[in-house]
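Reading a protein record of the kind used here takes only a little practice. The record below shows the convention in full:
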Amino acid sequence: MFSAFLSDFDVFFSRYAKDHNHRNLITHSIIPSAIIIVVGLVFYWPALIISGFAYFMHVVVDMFDWGINLFYFPKKTYGPRLFMSNEEEENLSKILTQYKNGVSFFDFKYYNSKVALIIEALLFILMVFFIIVLAFEYILISLIYFLGLYFHLSRHYHLKKIEAK
């Protein structure tokens, strides 16, 4: 479970990423998941192999909303970028200058999207359902989800405060 959100710790380095999008860093490419899977295969460590696939699935899911730098080295963002219009994508550099913190653009677009919030709620419900049905003994581990939610929401409100000044 930890490896599924491990790649999001790169949010602290957003300012170094292209367009201030942490998903353009190497941590949101397929390289780390491939390394984890290969190490798991070499040492025949099933937990590490599963962790690599969980990391990979996170990266694949992230491809749909803002896109990711799939192979990292071409420095090209891949994915449908569903939360961004073609106009916004073409003028992204100009749009980001309208914010005190460029990350705010991505954050506000996401949290102002009813579709994104509904998907988040549905995924949470599915997670709890599958834990109850398939691995009830791990139900307390799902509390870690709320730490991640707290992190995201506190960051969101911090950015709102910065932009309101």
